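User: I'm preparing a small set of examples for a lab meeting where we compare how different chains pack in three dimensions. I only have the primary sequence for this one, and I'd like the structure in C-alpha cell form so I can line it up with the others. Please keep the answer compact; I'll paste it straight into my notes.
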Amino acid sequence: MAVPSRDIIVRQGVRVTSAARTWIDLATDLSLRDLIVAGDFLVSCHQRSYGNCTEPVIGLETLGNFLSSQRNVPGLVSARAYGRLRVGVDSPPETKVRIILEDGGLPRFTVDCPILMPDGDVAQWVDLANEEFRVMIEYDGAHHLTPEQQFRDMQRDARAVELGWTQIKINQLDLRHGPKWIEGKVRRVLERRGYGRP
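Assistant: Understood. Below is the C-alpha cell output for the 198-residue chain.
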C-alpha cells in the first residue's frame, strides 16, 4: 500500500500510520459497529468535575477534517461511521449499547451525561442518559463487583432515584443476550416513563 508521508508518524522509533489514517484503514476490515467502537476510543476524553481529565488520541474535529481531506482511499466510504462517534465514552461495551439503542430507533441517549442537583451542581456523571424521560443507563463491568465499588454504586443509585431518574444497569450478560434483549429492556423502562404515549 502506498501511504502518503503526511499519514506516517514515528512512535518509539517505529514508522506507523497516524491514528486517523489507521481508523480509515480499519474501515475495510471491521463491521460498522466495531468501527464506531474504535472511533469512540480514539476521540474519547473527559473534563468531568471529578477524577483526572483525559485527552483524546485524536480530537473529533481533527479526525473530521482529516476525513474531509482524503480522496480515493480504501475504506473512506465506510468512514461514514464518523457521524456516529461520541466523545466521552468509557468502554467498548458502552458504545455497543448506544449503537443498539440507536439502531433500534429509541430516543437519543447522551454519552457521559451530567445529572444535576436542584441547585445546578453536578450530582453524578452517567454513561448514557435520556433527559426527556429521565432514564439513565450504567454499564457495569467487572470492576463493579468489588465491595468498595458496590458501596459507591449503591450511593450513586440512591442519589439518582432521589433526583427522579430511573436507572437501568447493563452488563456483559445483557450483551450476550443480544441487541433485541437490550433494546427491549430499555424500551420497557422508557414506556413506563411515558415514551410512545400520544
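A couple of notes for your slides: The mean pLDDT is 89. The domain at 92-192 is CATH 3.40.960.10 (Endonuclease; Chain A).

User: Perfect, thanks.
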